[in-house]
Amino acid sequence: MRDTSPHEPGEVFGPRMTLFADMLSVGLATAVAGLPLVTIPAALSTACAVLRGAGEGQPATAGRYFEVLRRRLRAGDLTAGAVALAGTLLFAADLALAAAGLPGAPLFAVVAGVIGAAVLVVGLRACARPESLTDWRTALREAARDSIRDVGGSGLVLLAVTTAVLCAWMLVPLLFLAPGPLALALTAVHIRWTGMSKS
Questions:
Q1: Same domain for 130 and 177
Q2: Which of 48, 102, 127, 144 has its CA at 20 to 30 Å from residue 1's CA atom?
Q3: Same domain, 118 and 164
Q4: Residue 40 lies in a domain
Q5: 129 and 106 share a domain?
Q6: What span, in angstroms and rounded, lies between the C-alpha atoms of 24 and 105?
Q7: Where are the bilayer-spanning segments (predicted)?
Q8: DSSP annotation of 74
Q9: CB neighbours of 105 closer than 8 A, spacing ≥ 6?
Q10: What is the structure's pLDDT at 46?
Q11: Which of 4, 7, 43 has its CA nearest to residue 27?
């Protein structure tokens, strides 16, 4: 299927292909910024902010990504990252205990999985909210409300995470590009819900 979108003079690819390339570069920048692990929430939040800005005519480039990240990185971002990392380790420990064959392990594993999925959805939806750039508490509170009121969007978030994990599992180098499509999906879910709630 041909890209019938208008091209600027001298432009080889249309704006959709440019956005795709920008998304991949932002994804790579996000992966690099998230390497210390405690910076993952801030890195993903910044990626969502940069991609959201693309809809407002702002450049979605790796250069702008690092500029925004440098301006916003603060103690609250590192605290959010430390809490997320501790929660992930606790969840992994719970699943390891369930796999060890403790009494009631199957039910415990199901309950832990549901709670873990709910927390993951709220955390990812918080990253997509503009408030996450300055106030994680507000972003998390609003994301929790969005997750309950917009069940379809929460399902889309889980689908996006599953797709990113499967892609990285099948081809490990994609792990460094997966944050871009994930951030784009989170941003799209947020914009979709914002539009629905206003109408």
A1: no
A2: 48
A3: no
A4: no
A5: yes
A6: 40
A7: 20-44, 78-101, 107-127, 148-171
A8: -
A9: 97, 98, 99
A10: 97
A11: 43
> Same structural domain for residues 135 and 87?
yes
Statement to judge: residues 97 and 142 lie in one domain:
yes
Q: What letter does residue 130 receive in the DSSP assignment? A: G
Same domain for 124 and 177? no
**Do the domain assignments include residue 22?**
no
The span from the CA of 26 to the CA of 24, in Å, is 5
Alpha carbon distance 180, 22 (integer Å): 9
Residue with tokens 């797709």: 163
Radius of gyration of the chain (CA): 18
Residues 107 and 128 both lie in one domain: yes
Question: In sequence order, what are the residues at sequence separation of 6 or more whose Cβ sits closer than 8 angstroms to the Cβ of residue 99?
Answer: 105, 109
- 3-class secondary structure, 91: helix
Per the structure, the count of domains in the chain is 2
Q: Is residue 102 a part of any domain in this protein?
A: yes
Structure tokens of 86?
């501790």
Q: For every one of its 199 residues, what pLDDT tens digit does the chain have, with 9 covering 90 and above?
A: 344 445 555 455 556 677 788 889 999 999 999 999 999 999 999 999 999 998 777 888 999 999 999 999 889 999 999 999 999 999 999 889 888 877 888 898 899 999 999 999 999 999 999 999 999 999 999 999 999 999 999 999 999 999 999 999 999 888 999 999 999 999 999 999 988 877 6
> Do the domain assignments include residue 6?
no
Nearest to 47 by CA among 21, 26, 70: 26
> Would you mind telling me the total number of residues written for the chain in this entry?
199
